[in-house]
Amino acid sequence: MPKHPAHPLDSTARPVLPGTDAELDAMLARALGKSGGETAEIDSPADVPSEVVDPAVQRCGYVAIVGKPNVGKSTLLNALVGQKVSITSRKAQTTRHRITGMRTLGATQFVFVDTPGFQTRHGNALNRALNKTVLGAVSDVDLILFVVEAGQFNLADAKVLSLLPANVPAILVANKFDLVHRRGELAPWLRSMQERHPFSEFVPMSAKASKDIERLFGICEKYLPQQPWMHSPDDLTDRSERFMASEMVREKLFRLTGDELPYTSTVIIDKFEEEGRLKRIAATIVVEREGHKGMVIGDKGEKLKRIGTEARQELEKLWDCKVFLELWVKVRSGWADDDARVRSFGYE
Ligand SMILES: Nc1nc2c(ncn2[C@@H]2O[C@H](COP(=O)(O)OP(=O)(O)OP(=O)(O)O)[C@@H](O)[C@H]2O)c(=O)[nH]1
């Protein structure tokens, strides 16, 4: 029989927020897996075949992943879903859409919502659209994973934190824990974080470590309501193949052009045709200035060719079919400042 922990918000089982120093220290010790905590080991809901789960005992709910740009939200989402549904790059502001990825483990179906980092620096139309997406994402979910870099918190984190609704449980995910060398300094940091928001739990982790991902599933499960699944247990995302194609090109574009290319460059799919086991895709990379065009094309077209090859290879792997990908580059000055154009490029 699969396990079904009581929903923490159903009854008196609401998580107790650590108030005293001793409680905070215990929370930290437990989260770090040190002795002395009563729940150092957390079961993962995995390993119960989902086909055999009676709908009457199924759990299903939305989990929003929020945080400022570059803290690792997309890496986390991909690891949770078990496949690439959101693009990642070292360049901040890579994610622009609300993306849902799903994962069904045992009796529980997790529906994840990825959000763009909350934009604070520029008030242009693109950033206004991005911020609206973040607000929409957090208002109607069962659980929020507020992602920060472990031990860090600045104004950009604070702006995202200020958007969290009071009535939705939020877990503090201290990501990139592998980069923290002075772990002893985390206790005062955790204390200050708990003063900023009544987090239900604290999870120090690395989105790149599979053990941490498994542990996170076990932690999140109890926050999702008991109700039948909304998607088939095999579904991983509700985004179209067309969308995945444009995201994949955009990821390669940002990875291969480095920091010179402004994040306002985007990708539009002009053609998406299927012929048996072959997909023919034509896409345009839209840049803001003539000078950016050269950065994308590179010496003798070398860079553009590499962007195309890498995107094609990943798409072939993702869909398990042959892909023919044709790329173009166009200049459209000021598109990110133009509301109508931002909408026409697919940002609501
Ligand atoms: N060392 C380390 N690096 C990580 C970890 N998680 C993510 N990263 C890296 O951090 C960078 C940003 O990760 P993303 O997943 O793109 O971040 P994001 O928050 O989705 O960024 P935006 O799309 O800009 O909002 C990438 O280079 C990741 O490889 C982690 O746990 N440890």
UniProtKB/TrEMBL annotation:
Keywords: Cell membrane, Cytoplasm, GTP-binding, Membrane, Nucleotide-binding, Ribosome biogenesis, RNA-binding, rRNA-binding. Residues 59-226 form the Era-type G domain. Its main location: cytoplasm. GTP binds at residues 67-74, 114-118, 175-178. Pfam families: KH_2, MMR_HSR1. Residues 93-97 are annotated as: G2. Residues 67-74 are annotated as: G1. It is a peripheral membrane protein. Residues 249-333 form the KH type-2 domain. It is found in: Cytoplasm; Cell membrane. Residues 114-117 are annotated as: G3. The keyword rRNA-binding applies. Monomer. This is GTPase Era. It comes from Hydrogenophaga palleronii. The lineage of its organism: Bacteria, Pseudomonadati, Pseudomonadota, Betaproteobacteria, Burkholderiales.
